[in-house]
Specification:
Helix content: 25-40%
Structural class: alpha/beta
Largest sheet: 4 strands, mixed
Number of helices: 4
Order of helices and strands: HEHEEHEH
Number of domains: 2
Shape: elongated
């Protein structure tokens, strides 16, 4: 029952976020953080305003570079690194971190001006920090 409630909350939050993204795009906005500067200062500040999650444990990993070209969303959060039996980090607790297809998609995204970040944990499996006795394993 608790998992069902969590799934409903996540689905609702996702729907609300996507509606906000669609509204911003329809108004001619951008989802990419921009640079700002004024006559008084020469510093440039860049902020990321949106970074959707990519579930890397799915059988087909999203083509992030193609998505970036179509939507102007250039930053993605890759999830989720979890324990794959003991202190062995894996995507979703089951797929190798050295997945060639994912590596190629990250490289293509970076060439398109995007970036990725990694999320640890997730709803399934064991948190890596709980599975490892120390930082070295």
């Amino acid at each position: 029952m608790r998992c069902e409630m969590r799934a409903k909350l996540i689905a609702g939050a996702t729907a609300a976020a996507l509606a906000g993204v669609a509204a911003a795009l329809l108004r001619g906005g951008s989802l990419r953080g921009g640079s700002s500067s004024t006559a008084e200062t020469t510093s440039t500040e860049e902020t990321t305003t949106f970074s959707p999650y990519i579930d890397t444990s799915l059988s087909t990993v999203l083509d992030m570079a193609a998505t970036a070209r179509k939507t102007d969303v250039k930053d993605f959060t890759l999830g989720f690194v979890a324990s794959g039996k003991g202190c062995n980090p894996k995507w979703g607790g089951k797929s190798s971190l050295t997945d060639t297809t994912l590596d190629q998609r990250i490289t293509a995204l970076r060439k398109a001006g995007g970036e990725t970040r990694v999320s640890f944990g997730g709803a399934v499996g064991t948190e890596l920090a709980q599975a490892c006795g120390s930082v070295s394993g």
